[in-house]
Specification:
Layout (H helix, E strand, L loop, with lengths): L3 H21 L16 E2 L9 E2 L5 E4 L2 E5 L10 E5 L7 E11 L2 E10 L5 E9 L8 E4 L3 E4 L3 E5 L5 E5 L3 H5 L7 E9 L2 E6 L2 E8 L9 E6 L6 E11 L1
Parallel strand pairs: 11-15
Antiparallel strand pairs: 1-17, 2-5, 3-4, 4-17, 5-16, 6-13, 6-17, 7-8, 7-16, 8-9, 9-10, 11-12, 13-14, 14-15
């Protein structure tokens, strides 16, 4: 016969284990600060916006995260970026934790500065917006929506575009917490760009066009329109 005290102790331990597990897997909790994986360097120190440039009306550090907020009274006038001031990268792997609670954002890569806008960038973008847009591959000054979630796109040298579907967008969406924390991974190899969220491939592009950038910088997007609230953490880059 199991003693009542022993039974209570068993259930207490089981309850603590359950709570710890649930807490660790809570997709709405700000993730812990991580060390850079082997071969990667951190682009964000977890405390400051050193080596980044952006409009201070929108960008700050909160909860150990790069944070962008706009309001109905202080709106983003056009697509602008928190621009990373490091050396341009060609082939690379970029990893970033992100959480978007409202609005629209994205990670710009192989980008170049657009001097017609304050903090303006053009380039490819791993899009971040709850719903159908999450995970698509966008091209600012490179073709706008290039590959929807679940699509492989290809531009021939003459600019002709071809699209094939490799997975159902709704099925991919099941692996994404649309308003909680997720991890983006962007891989650039030559003229091939592949995007993953939570290690699930979301979109891909092969770009043979002559104007396709061979290297570029990175930026985090502040998007015009509805008020936005987005955070980024654990941003790591490996040059290949």
């Amino acid at each position: 016969m199991i003693r009542p005290a022993l039974l209570r102790k068993f259930f207490l331990i089981a309850f603590c284990v359950f709570c710890a597990s649930a807490h660790a897997d809570d997709p709405n909790k700000v993730p812990a600060t991580k060390a850079a994986p082997e071969g990667f360097v951190a682009l964000f120190d977890g405390k400051t916006l050193d080596n980044w440039s952006g409009d201070p009306r929108f960008w700050s550090v909160e909860d150990g995260c790069i944070t962008c907020k706009s309001t109905p009274d202080v709106t983003v006038p056009y697509s602008e970026y928190l621009v990373w001031n490091g050396e341009a990268a060609g082939d690379f792997t970029l990893i970033a934790d992100f959480c978007i609670k409202s609005g629209n954002s994205g990670i710009e890569y192989r980008a170049w500065k657009d001097d017609t806008r304050d903090f303006g960038l053009n380039g490819y973008q791993a899009d971040i917006c709850p719903g159908d847009i999450m995970g698509l591959l966008y091209g600012e000054a490179l073709g706008e929506i290039i590959a929807w979630r679940g699509e492989n796109a290809r531009f021939d040298a003459d600019g002709a575009k071809h699209v094939e579907r490799f997975a159902d967008a709704a099925e991919i969406a099941k692996s994404i917490n649309m308003k909680g924390w997720n991890t983006y991974r962007v891989v650039a190899r030559g003229n091939t760009f592949t995007q993953y969220i939570n290690d699930v491939k979301t979109s891909e592009l092969v770009d043979e066009r002559p104007n396709a950038p061979k290297k570029g910088i990175f930026g985090l997007q502040a998007h015009p329109g509805e008020p936005m609230n987005v955070q980024y953490k654990n941003i790591f880059l490996k040059r290949d």
